[in-house]
Amino acid sequence: MRNRLAVEIAGLKLSNPTMLAAGILGMTGTSLKEAILCGAGAVVTKSVGLKPREGYPNPTVAQAACGLLNAMGLPNPGIDEFKEEIKEVKQSETRVPLIASIYGFSTSEFVKVGKVVAEAGADALELNVSCPHIKETGAEIGQNPDLVAEVIREVKKNVKKPVFVKLTPNVANIVGVAKAAVEAGADALTAINTVRAMAIDVETTRPILANKIGGLSGPAIKPIAVRCVYEIYREVDVPIVGCGGITSWQDAVECMLAGASAVQIGTAIATRGLGVFKSITRGVNIYLRRKGFRSVKEIVGLSHHR
Amino acid sequence: MSAYLTTANHLRIVKIENIKQETPTVKSFTFKDKLCSKARPGQFIMVWIPDVDEVPMSLSGISPHACSISVKKVGEATKVLHQRKTGDYLGIRGPFGNDFRVVRGKVMVVGGGTGITSLMPLVESLVKENVEVTFLLGAKTKNELLLRDRIQTVLSKTKGRFEITTEDGGYGSEGIVTEFAEKYLTKEKFDMIYTCGPEPMMHRMLQLASRFHTPLQASLERLMRCAIGICGTCVIGKFRVCRDGPVFTGEQLSEVKEEFGHFKRAFDGRKVKL
Lengths: 306, 274
What we know:
The complex is a heterodimer of chains A (306) and B (274).
Chain A: E1 7-9, E2 12-14, E3 18-20, H1 29-37, E4 42-44, E5 61-64, E6 67-70, H2 79-91, E7 98-102, H3 107-120, E8 124-128, H4 139-142, H5 145-158, E9 163-167, H6 174-183, E10 188-191, E11 195-198, E12 213-217, H7 222-235, E13 240-243, H8 249-258, E14 260-265, H9 268-272, H10 276-291
Chain B: H1 2-9, E1 12-15, E2 18-23, E3 26-31, H2 34-37, E4 44-49, E5 53-62, E6 67-72, H3 76-83, E7 89-96, E8 106-112, H4 116-128, E9 132-139, H5 148-156, E10 161-166, E11 173-174, H6 177-187, E12 192-196, H7 199-211, E13 216-219, E14 235-236, E15 239-240, E16 247-249, H8 250-255, E17 263-265, E18 271-273
Parallel strand pairs in B: 8-9, 8-12, 9-10, 10-11, 12-13
Antiparallel strand pairs in B: 1-7, 2-3, 3-6, 4-5, 4-7, 5-6, 13-16, 14-15, 17-18
């Protein structure tokens, strides 16, 4: 029987449209494999760079009313160690695509890291040009269409793997950045990273996060993600992966109606557990059957058509 | 589950009601918090010291009126915490994680160093359920023996046994606590072994549990950030210590035998030998 949930994004075959978002678990091969076992259609690793980074001191997360703030500070063991974690996943001979999230403090760092993850067996790269709280990388690149384009062009020139680009919502015009990314050769776009945000404790009068400013994720930002996906879908031809506050099958369907070919899940793992991949997939499947769709692809961008 | 987690994950500011110097390096801090009063033995909280750090701490006391943590001065955060006075404020999130499963019959509890703190509420629950407890408490020196009087008091009304060992022989019996555990296991049958302490000690207890066909529950310690199962800092194999633990069964620990007792992850995710 044909799998009505199967999707293909930038040449990657996913058996269902749910993906593990970057930065969530994903620091070790074993935890990536666990997300695969729990039903993720694809997994994105924690962002990895050239050198090890400890990240920021705690507190690195703070609960908000309808979401979660975090400023982890890109902790990672550096590509030399992390490539072994990628190999561990690929050696398990899973068919589930592994996408390596990478960051760099310069274009040449992106290229160097990209080459190593590709060699280690990553099926695609996701460029983190959207982390909202690190100086000289992340959103400081992602807010500038020219810098985004430069990084993508160089990575595409040197690494023969599909390139996803994760966009920041912390810009006046996300469509402009999206178009620049696609013109530079991006094979897919992930929208969105977290929204720059902050929390201050009233009793102690102190900012809660050690880094003071972090990124907001979870249900609070889902409407922002839906709007971004919707706006980008109208203007670009590459697949979009929706990300931001997706917690239920309804959220996933909404994001796909806006134009997402698949969705990434992160914060919902805290509230729903790792079973969230299967429960969303099941819900989407029932929805498709009930509405008479033969494939999940039929609902991608459907809200744009009358 | 969902509502529980987000509620528990909200930061609360609590006043330090009382401070007790337990040993030269350990102080217990008492505070009031409704959610912590409902915590189960073995659960932990994240303790925020504004402008300094946030660290995971086992609850060493759980009661309807007050809860406590017992903190050893080991680093910057705990040093600052030790300077706090009664009436000062602390931030807390939690309680998080799973708890010790209480069984009936006759059990052995093996605690080492500060690991004893999470076993304290467990022993109180066991005694309430009329479980026969053999408590083996180990420390390097007499100065590091923790919560001795509280354990003594709790067990005094029962037919439970309490044996203290120090490595230098400065108090109780001289030797390593696991050697005493082995002696008891050779002579008697236990329905469960509960353990918390340095990982090499717990690793040894797992070996003994397997040799004597006795089930085991061990409470693990790892570096933590989010405490709600998403950041991946505290993983051991496929398990997240903050969410799937901190209490693991002997069977679960056997599934991660490449890591348990051998290495843990640093904040940057690199492996560090234990």
